[in-house]
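Exercise 7. Predict the joint structure of the components listed below.
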Amino acid sequence: MTTKSACGTLDLMPAELPSTMRTPLNTALPKPGSQSALREQNQRRVIAALMSGGPQTQAELSRQTGLSTATISNIVKVMATSGIVSTTPTTSSGRRALSVILNDKGQVAAGIDIGRRHLRVVLASPNYRILQEASVSLRPGHSAVEGLRAASDLLDALLANGGIDRRALLGAGIGIPGPIDRRTGTVVQGAILPEWVGINIRETFGERLQVPVFIDNDANLGALAQVTWGPHSAVENLLFIKVGSGIGSGLVLNGSLYYGNVGVTGELGHTTINEQGVICRCGNRGCLETVASTSTMIELLGRGSAETVDTQRIIEWALAGDTAALRVIDDAGAAIGRALAHVANLINPETIVIGGPLTSLGDILLEPVRRGLARHAVPLIGETTSVCMSSLGDRAEALGGAAVVLAHPGLTPALASSA
Amino acid sequence: MTTKSACGTLDLMPAELPSTMRTPLNTALPKPGSQSALREQNQRRVIAALMSGGPQTQAELSRQTGLSTATISNIVKVMATSGIVSTTPTTSSGRRALSVILNDKGQVAAGIDIGRRHLRVVLASPNYRILQEASVSLRPGHSAVEGLRAASDLLDALLANGGIDRRALLGAGIGIPGPIDRRTGTVVQGAILPEWVGINIRETFGERLQVPVFIDNDANLGALAQVTWGPHSAVENLLFIKVGSGIGSGLVLNGSLYYGNVGVTGELGHTTINEQGVICRCGNRGCLETVASTSTMIELLGRGSAETVDTQRIIEWALAGDTAALRVIDDAGAAIGRALAHVANLINPETIVIGGPLTSLGDILLEPVRRGLARHAVPLIGETTSVCMSSLGDRAEALGGAAVVLAHPGLTPALASSA
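Solution:
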């Protein structure tokens, strides 16, 4: 069995960081589909090209991103004004040209991923380098206050560890494994963290940190990470599905994170798979989560097992060829594939990326997912939709949190003022 | 039982039309999410406001559309240059202002809806008035050539009837009840019109008419009609589901028609409802179409019926309270609601509009659909998604065809050249 299951890989390396200070201007994200969202998306492509290809001329950037030279010229001008890039004269094929290089002005964005049992914090520079990164365990059933205090403490520790002045912090993007009502900024019922329902995290955490705080569903951040840090920066329509104790997904449509009406999207975990199945925490029956989440796998494989079963143990068993573990994963994968087929039939994405704690299973999980997709999708859609594992592993959500901060127009006052 | 099932209504009246000539510049539709798509969407809102509210000042347009006065001023300038509107000085609250009025320069766009058994053609002016409209029956199993000849003949008859010079024709937008591969412009396998598979309608029909031809899935055109001619011009995220001999849907996301990767989207009819159900024409089992299409209803109610059953007969029976007809419609509605719940969980639209031949059933169909939606959707999504019948009846798809032509940048050379 091949393990070439990721669509691509990317190395992200920590680096040294001088400190300066800076405060963003405002906290509103650009409206999806708006001109500022388009500009932000184009800027993201240019940054991705500079990250992967190093300093290069505008003509090279145009070829690498598919954007017109006029668009590249405008974006580079705006990014240079706001200090994200510098330009230096060079020659290319004997003609004068500008070499574009990513700056590092010492500012830093925090990405925070809070799960049911884990907390991860990353610090990234405006040129999208990962400076610091750490994760710790959280007590299951922790309160929101507890979780936010732990996040704040870990953030402080990372700043101290990197010798980064606190005033260099631009903002924090926090991912929560639950639907967020964007009208109120609160976690809504149905979250995998019931203790967090109704809490306004943005306000609570913003008061503590004294910087702008962006709160989003963790799967949305995972999707954003795929098109920002991952190998999918050129993908227009992407679904990121996180398979863990819960199952959720985030959508990038026409190049931007998609939020719909009230912000609750991608609730794939509650697709009905068995009309007469077991009761789901959402109150419905036979939802995808009741047949394909890691909680369900643990429950199924825990029966009659003398050992304590957890996700890591299941992965070990499966990689070692344990028949029961393989069967449970196969059934889960086929059900996920069926739910994904209905999604693909509806929104026809280029790429579906699977994230969460099971990514190291590779083809053991991917194969039944692809089989379920092909079985239930309209043929042309099944044939043209690629499914792969996230190459960002369990870092995707936190990286997405940092990406949200860096995508914020407040970070680039010239962008905001030219809007 | 209340029959207030439409979200709103709109009167469209035919009108006189002088003739001039005009040719569009190019045939590429703007890329979704691009600046030109955004401009087109804003222009559509302004036109909708002028259609419903008559001539008004830019300040009034700003209030009615929610667009900034600066944006309105830019749009009006572009539309005036391209001749869509005229402006005349007026006063508003004692201050000088410009009154904006829709022009009618005698040009005409054709919208064509080709179904398995019907053909409808509408002619609309650039200020979105319906000038001519007619529908005829088609022989079931007609060939593509036959269908296109009938469409061309009916179009000629409508032009003659309205005294409209053929040279005034800007283009034709054609809706087909099947998935269209946008990479090739052909109908792909899985279409309800198997005779049309692989035909390049754009080329075939374009040669015949000698004007640009736009081909799209009929449900996509139905969705576009809802935000163009219908009462939903302010809706950002809308799903239009057409329930007929097949079931398909079209998506407006972030204000624009959504096409995904290869253009095959909204294939809701092939959501698996019964894993062990009957075989569907797509090759799968238990698809929504096998339990909720009018073909299935006809089959179910035809058994043991001495009469010939068709959709119209089923509607009459249901409206007269026939128990069997009501039960078949109730079961179909609940299944449609379940499929819609999964869609709503994923893309969280403001509004779902039901179109097709069953719209006159009103709450008889709407009630089980809403019930199925509420039962299977995440609670917050079920509560915030409105479901209603299309107020455009069976005209939606043809109207959408005309809207595609009118939304085309070639129609407004000033817009295209400023892109």
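Discussion. Chain B has three domains: 35-101, 108-223+397-417, 234-390.
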